[in-house]
Design goal:
With 175 residues, this protein is an alpha/beta fold. It has a five-stranded parallel sheet. The longest helix is centred in the N-terminal third of the chain and has 17 residues. The protein has one domain: Rossmann fold. Helices cover 43% and strands 19% of the residues. It has seven helices and five strands, in the order H-H-E-H-E-H-E-E-H-E-H-H. The protein is globular.
């Protein structure tokens, strides 16, 4: 559902850019803003790229948690597997796909959709899949450097029109 995976050079260039980005905004700091990432939870890093957030999340959820690293690019999957092996975490499962995660319904506590939304050719199908695997009180956390908040909300809102999504917390008070 992404236009197509980038070539090897493009992937390596993206990996270098993300390393530089992480110097200014460390992954653990970003993930600390997602309240629900804690020991024992299941996290889905959709569009995981080289796995910077995957590995950080795996450290945070610990051995009782699980992190699913999903990407369309075989090099991304290989990079994540190598990082997981090097760190000896053992709680990361990689999934090569452009949409269907094959995860059970309502099996994920937190979904990270970081820096990939702008790449989706058909976001509706991907949002539907993410909604399918997200637990009823789960969290979808989105960061996209190419879209402002309004555009992100618009894309998610459009995709979710046909889904049975619910509002929680403070949002309920506004409606």
């Amino acid at each position: 559902m992404i236009d197509r995976p980038m070539n090897k050079f493009g992937f390596k260039a993206m990996t270098l850019i993300l390393r530089i980005h992480d110097l200014f905004r460390p992954t653990h700091k970003v993930l600390s803003e997602v309240d629900m990432i804690k020991p024992g939870v299941h996290v889905l890093d959709y569009g995981c790229g080289p796995g910077n957030y995957t590995i950080a999340a795996a450290e945070l959820v610990g051995p009782s948690g699980k992190v699913y690293a999903v990407d369309i690019h075989p090099l991304a999957i290989l990079k994540v597997q190598n990082k997981d092996d090097k760190k000896g975490l053992g709680n990361v499962k990689t999934i090569l796909t452009d949409c269907n995660t094959k995860l059970p319904h309502s099996s994920v506590d937190v979904i990270l959709l970081f820096y990939v939304l702008h790449d989706f050719k058909y976001p509706d199908a991907i949002i539907k899949e993410l909604n399918r695997v997200l637990k009823p009180m789960g969290v979808l956390s989105v960061i996209d450097h190419k879209f402002d908040n309004y555009k992100v909300v618009s894309i998610i809102g459009h995709a979710s029109r046909n889904l049975n999504l619910r509002r929680t917390g403070a949002e309920e008070e506004d409606y």
